[in-house]
Amino acid sequence: MINIELEHITKIEGDASISITVEDGKATKVHFITEEYKRFFTEALKGKSILSVPSHLSRICGTCSNAHVLAAIEACEMALDIEPSKQTEMLRALTMHGLTIRDHALHLYLFCMPDIYGKDAFLDFDENDPHENQLLHDAFAIKSAGNFLATIIAGRSIHAMFPAIGGFIKYPDAEQVAQAIEKLESVREATVRLVAEFEKCTFAFDRHTDYMALLPDEG
Questions:
Q1: Which of 107, 100, 109, 101 is nearest to 194 (CA)?
Q2: Which residues of the chain have a pLDDT value below 50?
Q3: Where are the domains of the chain?
């Protein structure tokens, strides 16, 4: 029997460790341990103004803070029976798109791709190798495009300042919108190359999963 202990798992958001027991060449027991402790957000918000709730709750996570901002705003609006305008809903969707683009670049390039190429970290890719150099530049170009979209809409790519209960406190101007469109169009070829990288990947992680989600009444 062999016991394998990994105290610090890298290439993930957060802190975790894993303990694996191997018997006769097979893993017989696996314990995945998350090391997140109680942070008492519920207690911290008691007595605070409802207007401050989204900003406080964005601190739940750094990289996906804008998702927490928008979720908190939606919860507050439901409590106050506030119906956001179509424009507000569109701007919130664009904020989430910026986050999604940025986080996909983070996860697929920085977390996953080193394993595909047998490297410890994404920055170990060789700038002198034309293909690996292209991947390095693609990663940061896509990430930058997502960050820019979120920034012009929400004020920042993390811990957004502009989304608020009932709407937004500031809106992007025409020049910023044009710049965002240009940046997003400029990374289209990079995203196609990214899809091709994973399409030719020689390993896969597949398992049966039941996905569940809450949807608004209108679907």
A1: 109
A2: none
A3: 1-37, 83-199
